[in-house]
Design a protein that fits this description.
The protein is about 60% helix and about 15% strand. It has about 110 residues and is of the alpha+beta class. The protein has a single domain (about 5-105), classed as Arc Repressor Mutant, subunit A, CATH 1.10.10.10.
Amino acid sequence: MPELDRVIHEPARLLIVTMLASVVEADFLYLLQATELTKGNLSTHLAKLEEAGYVEIEKAFRGKIPLTLARLTREGSAAFQSYRKEMAELLKVRRHRGRAALNRSPVTVR
């Protein structure tokens, strides 16, 4: 059975990584609105992803306004692709086991 990446598997981090996988980069406010996480939760999850090497955080200013950008690293992109493959394999195994259980079931399905 495949071993899922526990860093990405956590629901909030999976959502963040999925969103970042489809864009070049995203600013903190966009991620905040899109994920509906609190500022503290989003910051904590981004820090965990950055610590794992999956996300790169850039802090800058747009004029005098602070701007925090997040982007998926190559390692993060590879980890996400691997996670997707592992999850697909896991789902195939479950589907196969589910069909086998139905074939042995004493219940008649119409």
